[in-house]
What we know:
Blueprint: E1 4-8, H1 14-23, H2 33-36, E2 44-45, E3 48-52, E4 55-60, E5 62-65, E6 68-71, E7 81-82, H3 88-104, E8 109-113, H4 126-133, E9 137-148, H5 157-168, E10 172-176, H6 180-195, H7 203-212, E11 217-224, E12 227-236, E13 240-248, H8 257-269, E14 275-280, E15 282-283, E16 288-289, H9 291-298, E17 303-313
Parallel strand pairs: 6-8, 13-14
Antiparallel strand pairs: 1-3, 2-5, 3-4, 4-7, 5-6, 8-17, 9-14, 9-17, 10-11, 11-12, 12-13, 15-16
Amino acid sequence: MKNYFVKRYQENDYAHWNAFIGQAKNATFLFHRDFMEYHKDQFEDFSLLVFENKKLVAVLPANRTGAIVYSHQGLTYGGLVFNGQSKLTTVIKAFRSILLFLEENKIQKLHLKTIPYIYNTKPAEEIQYALFLAEAQLVRRDSLSVIDLSHHNKLSKIRKRGIRNALVNGLIIKEEEVFESFWNEILIPNLSEKHHAEPVHSITDMKLLKSHFPNNIRQFNVFYNDKIVAGTTVFESERVAHCQYISKYEKGENLGSLDLLCHFLITEVFSDKRFFDFGTSNEAQGRKLNKGLSYWKESFGAGTVAHDFYEVETANHFKLENIFV
């Protein structure tokens, strides 16, 4: 393992990090430093770079809380990022080096969330095998509702009825460059009334992220008689269109706004993507399922993709020794 070297991310690594992310097989724009650092004041960054000799072979977007390092808690997904030429043995050695580095820096545990396979540009589940070897514990599993757009997906009768209602009601869909109307008139009131919660991102956050990633962050709104009634914020990566936020505020009316919007996005705007990701319908760290929300997504033809979260003792780096035959 003497050829492997781990260091913490520093500002002068900005260009090197982003260049690596740009050619990795299991990364999206969420791992770009401009995305990660929009909320840098909320987290103690503990991102790592792994070198084999002088060559960068892996990075870990991460933050620290006390004696625990997490796959960056400000990101939807995470894990160890490596390039398309990385071999399984390289990933295992890189992961062992990370665990050893963390133990030497008084870190007791690493919480690592994976990146769902739908976001990978080629098979890239080497880290899952490394986690198995290190006897990591599965501590959370979310269920993502995902449509494989390479296949024909049958709409349920109730979704077809909703789309017909939307057309009869004369609903109009617009892509907009600003977020104020959706945030202030739909998302914030809906989350407040139904869940006593607020959006993770503020309007200021979204403006900043949109300025950095104008082609990856898109806002679609639905209007009824010139008034916004629903919308979704989509994070678009190479293979996946993901609904980061999706909400309606129809005040008891059954307009079919979200049925029309999602059908339009799936069949028109993002039909050339491989996957359409509605996201999770889970609560309580994956141990509760909102069955109504899950059913609504499945009625568009979505199936389930597991998103796993692991905990591993850093002292377990020794379990990754002497495994090659």
